[in-house]
TrEMBL record:
The modification N6-(pyridoxal phosphate)lysine is found at K238. One of its GO terms (cellular component) is cytosol. Threonine aldolase involved in threonine degradation to glycine. May play a role in the removal of L-allo-threonine. Belongs to the threonine aldolase family. Residues 280-307 form a coiled coil. This is low-specificity L-threonine aldolase. The keyword RNA-binding does not apply.
Length: 389
């Protein structure tokens, strides 16, 4: 048994050595690199051949006039998968969230309860306030991406306090929660928040940019996972690998209002079937690959944990994201390690003053993961030994 283990280990080491000796190509910085392993985000995927063919052959018409057949087909399919009445294709996840929040908070000065570390609050330019006139009431996101249920209930402000307070009209969740490590929000928690929203006459929106990752990791059908939500935004250009777009799903009347707002915001696109065709391929071909991304993320997290100076919280590695922390006592900064890795063609992004984020997607193979691990180990040794300029 021990012999077999040693043999497997040797094969892996030889494979890694071969990877590093592999052919060189031009990297992003113009320097020669051995290969590129782009772990900055799952938004970096390139359209596959099948997607390009589907785009070239898509049957299209003017979607602003409501006549694009490929867009119609795709939206109907998405509505069905998500278990909602209707769907709308929009250019980005940011626009999908903005439109959703604005439809639910039609009255200017309405309030939304959302996590202080969620994408809508942190990374969307405050659009819900500056464009939507919606007041954010942030609650602390726990490390698992949820907010405390008692705190949510206590934060709800009813219209009878109107003279002083904005009225709460919406609660937003994010599933998976990106800044919390791609963690999954359970169906039980989502149902509970939906129940509270209903009791108080509020709506529930889910930023489901990576809702399919959550559904697969939890083993819960996606329509069940979002059953309690009045609307969901789903990104097609993240783990699913489509080049462009997001979809909003909800009731028919919600989507009618969303369509009008999409036009107001400049998101009505004419022959949009070209994009929907690629998204349809992504749905058909890449959905089942998300599971492999999760498995590779675990291999990556486990490998990183074996590198002295680095640590990964394994319980938070539930889907396709891996955040590694750099030990405080170390002389390695996230910027420095990303800079050294880039010289090897491994692309990553600092996530905080002490951590780096790596994201898996269908164009990252298991061999890429082993290559990245080897390069990270080398970069750590190199920086620690003070051998970089
Ligand atoms: C959780 C989450 N929501 C929304 C978005 C916004 O998507 P987009 O970049 O398409 O605007 C992102 C983008 O990374 C995200 O991670």
């Amino acid at each position: 048994m021990r012999c077999l283990h040693r043999l497997v280990k040797s094969i892996v080491l030889v494979k890694e050595a071969l990877l590093i000796l592999g052919s060189k190509t031009q990297g992003r910085t113009g320097k020669m690199v051995r290969r590129t392993v782009d772990l900055r985000s799952d938004t970096v995927t390139k359209p596959t051949e099948t997607m390009r063919v589907a785009m070239a052959n898509a049957e299209v018409d003017d979607d602003v006039l409501g006549a694009d057949p490929t867009a119609h087909r795709f939206e109907s399919e998405m509505a069905k998968i998500m278990g909602k009445e209707a769907a709308l294709f929009v250019p980005s996840g940011t626009m999908a969230n903005l439109i959703s929040v604005m439809v639910h908070c039609e009255v200017r000065g309405s309030e939304v309860i959302l996590g202080d570390n969620c994408h809508i609050h942190v990374y969307e330019n405050g659009g819900i306030s500056t464009i939507g006139g919606v007041h954010p009431r942030t609650l602390k996101n726990k490390s698992d991406g949820t907010m405390d249920i008692a705190e949510i209930e206590a934060a709800i402000r009813h219209p009878d306090g109107e003279l002083y307070f904005p009225s709460t009209r919406l609660i937003c969740l994010e599933n998976t929660h990106a800044n919390c490590g791609g963690r999954c929000i359970s169906v039980e928690y989502t149902d509970k928040i939906g129940e509270i929203a209903k009791q108080h006459g509020l709506k529930l929106h889910i930023d489901g940019a990576r809702i399919f990752n959550a559904s697969i990791a939890l083993g819960v059908p996606v329509h069940r996972l979002v059953q309690a939500a009045d609307s969901v935004s789903v990104c097609l250009s993240k783990g699913l690998g489509a080049p462009v777009g997001s979809v909003i799903v909800g009731s028919r009347s919600f989507i009618t209002k969303a369509k009008r707002l999409r036009k107001t915001l400049g998101g009505g696109m004419r022959q949009v079937g070209v994009l929907c065709a690629a998204a349809h391929v992504a749905l058909r071909e890449n959905l089942e690959k998300l599971e492999e991304d999760h498995q590779r993320a675990k291999i990556l997290a486990d490998g990183l944990n074996q590198i002295k100076q680095l640590s990964v919280n394994m319980t938070s590695t539930e889907t396709n994201m891996v955040y590694f922390n750099i030990l405080e006592s170390s002389c390695i900064s996230p910027e420095k390690i990303c800079e050294v890795l880039e010289e090897h063609g491994v692309l990553a992004m600092p996530a905080s003053a002490t951590s780096v984020r790596l994201v898996l997607h269908h164009q990252i193979s298991e061999s890429d993961v082993h290559y990245a691990l080897t390069c990270i180990k080398q970069a750590v040794d190199q920086i620690t030994a003070g051998s970089t300029k």
